[in-house]
Amino acid sequence: MATMPCQRGSKPTTTRRITQFRAATRSVFLCSAPLVGQPNAGLTGQDVRLACAEPGDQLAIFGKALRELHERATILYEEAGRYWFSTQRTLNRLAENIAKELIEHM
Questions:
Q1: pTM of the model
Q2: Fewest Cβ atoms closer than 10 Å to its Cβ: which of 42, 43, 55, 92?
């Protein structure tokens, strides 16, 4: 019984982190829709925090989620601190995937 409070305390943290990660992803996706005849401006980290944060949230978590998303996602672009999704994979991610496939086949 002594471990119950500890277990209850750890699950919401993980659940909350996943929720914040999804919120950051959703805000970049929705705000990076292409505009007809205009270049995509994307979102800054501050814009993501503004779109996602609720009272009581730690704002650093959204920055961490955005960095983690940028490391994992193959179609998320970042330039000069602005993030946006595209329909094409980034060249660096494409090269990394091809390199991994070559190593696996050897």
A1: 0.64
A2: 55
